[in-house]
Amino acid sequence: MSRYFGTDGFRGEANKDLTVEHAYKIGRFLGWYYKEENEKDASGTPRIVIGKDTRRSSYMFEYSLVSGITASGAEAYLAHVTPTPSISYITRTEGFDCGIMISASHNPYYDNGIKIMNSNGEKMEDRVIEKIEDYLDGKFEVPFAKRDEIGRTVDYVYGRDQYVEYLLSLATKSFEGYRIGLDCSNGSASSIAKTVFETLGAKTFVIHNEPNGTNINNNCGSTCIEVLQKFVLENQLDAGFAYDGDADRCIAVDELGNVINGDIILYIYGRYMKERGRLTNNTVVTTVMSNLGLYKAFDDIGIRYEQTTVGDKYVYENMVANGHRLGGEESGHIIFGQYGATGDGILTSLKLMQAMIGRGMPLSKLAEPVTIYPQIVKNIKVSSKRAVKEDHKVMEEAKKVEELLGNEGRIVVRESGTEPVIRVMVEAPEQKLCEEYASRVIQVIKSQGYEVS
Length: 453
What we know:
Blueprint (H helix, E strand, L loop, with lengths): L4 E2 L2 E5 L6 H22 L5 E6 L3 H16 L3 E7 L2 H10 L4 E5 L8 E7 L8 H11 L16 E3 L1 H14 L8 E5 L9 H7 L3 E5 L18 H9 L4 E5 L6 E5 L4 E2 L1 H14 L7 E5 L4 H10 L2 E5 L3 H11 L3 E3 L5 E3 L8 H15 L3 H5 L7 E7 L3 H6 L1 H14 L4 E6 L5 E7 L3 H17 L6
Parallel strand pairs: 3-4, 3-5, 4-7, 8-9, 8-10, 13-14
Antiparallel strand pairs: 1-2, 2-6, 5-6, 10-11, 11-12, 15-16, 17-19, 18-19
């Protein structure tokens, strides 16, 4: 179990859980680590690219990371406000040793996070994360660079521009004639999404693209989709796309105001790929939280699927290990293996547009075959996630619920990857059954004494 880093980086309230000292030391370690690695093969001064979202604290953490990186003898390249997937793209295509994204994704503005990527633009290997955590805990020291070995800082807005050009290159059809809404969540998408859609010919209507440091994810974006639903209907748009704070996820809205979540996106694009003979292995990678309705829809058209633990990191690992090309999560993290190593919200919206235009159908028709089962997720803060998962009475109650649901529903009891929380998810034919069965398991967790306030 990581001491600081969860499934999506080191995340917490700025200067409370994640401090400037943490950021400085992470920079110190990465600068030193890659300097040592590069000296082994004489590959020169290490280069680390940094991006950030629009939170007020992102600038503070950026400067702290830069200080640490340069103090250890590496060069820090600043891509400024940009989506997480852009840092993944820049890192792997421009020869960087490492990429860093400063963001807490969909969390409120007062939280922040540090995501670290390897030279392939993938989430950093656990062995390196463990070394970072040892350094944060003071288990060893690293030397300061001296004289001409001290690193430098380079303005690198060019990298973000390269990512925009890459996105445009992937769009095979013009969007002319389409009226599209974008909710940029006052986050990273604010810097590029409108430009991409307008360049491709869409008449674009944009909301929440005026970040001020404290309004990111505030009643907007992919976690507050009802705002975009209303906007699409009021303006009679063909579709709407909502991103989260760092634009690595996308939730869509069809022309009727219906929500097109990550599961439905996987169905729409999985089917589109299959029809064109491009769905490698005829398989889509999902997580245990994907809806039963998705699997039934896949069964109906003969698409196979695999399940992983929650987290786009695990989806991507499965895709790489098995050669699959499409995977994602209900939350809107969609990975197109041919094009990237992480969820990419803007790319996802471009791909949905491609499916709409390619099949000559509105989003509502593309989504029609998927019947989403009622679902509830109840969260309970606990003293020990592992203890709950190993508790015989808790698991026995979950088993009873599973037997009651049979083939018409399911239950998942899992640990949060970023919080001291157990999540109980139930799907059933009726919402009241979801509530009833989830509450039964939550009550046992409480009776066993694990709940904390």
